[in-house]
Amino acid sequence: MIIRFVKLEILSQHINDFKTLTANEKADILAFEGCFFLQILQDQNNPSIFFTVSHWKSESALNAYRESDFFRGNWKQVKEWFANKPEAWSLGES
Questions:
Q1: Angle, to 10 degrees, between the axis of helix 69-79 and the axis of helix 59-66?
Q2: What Rg, from alpha-carbon coordinates, does the chain have?
Q3: pTM for the model
Q4: 1 — pLDDT class (breaks 50, 70, 90)
Q5: How far apart are CA 73 and CA 29, in angstroms?
């Protein structure tokens, strides 16, 4: 299992856009083969900071999602809202 953390900093004028987009697309992401958990968290002290936490059956399942047309379209939109470069970690149990 892979647990994926992604930190995103969103421009303040697009925070609501980001929240709407992720709320509307959460079910679509969870429908991808190999994804069985997704949570979007917002920092309590800095509302521009978000983390996504997702659980994937394998790295190949995560990569299949990342190479999908759905992800490319979503990422293209969200990328315009970034205040800083996103950071990502893929973790597994040791």
A1: 70
A2: 13
A3: 0.92
A4: very high
A5: 13
Closest CA to 16 of 81, 92, 69: 81
Residue 91 banded pLDDT, cuts 50, 70, 90? very high
**Burial class of residue 61 in the structure, from the number of CB atoms within 10 Å of its CB (0-12 exposed, 13-18 middle, 19+ buried):** middle
Query: Looking at residue 75, what is its pLDDT?
Result: 87
Q: Where are the domains of the chain?
A: 2-91
Q: 2-91: which CATH topology?
A: Alpha-Beta Plaits (3.30.70)
Cβ contact 22:40 at 8 Å: yes
13 phi and psi angles, rounded to 5 deg: -70, -10
H/E stretch holding 23: helix 15-30
Task: List CB contacts of 53: < 8 A, sequence separation 6 or more.
Answer: 3, 4, 5, 37, 38, 39, 41
Instruction: Show the tokens assigned to 12.
Output: 């303040």
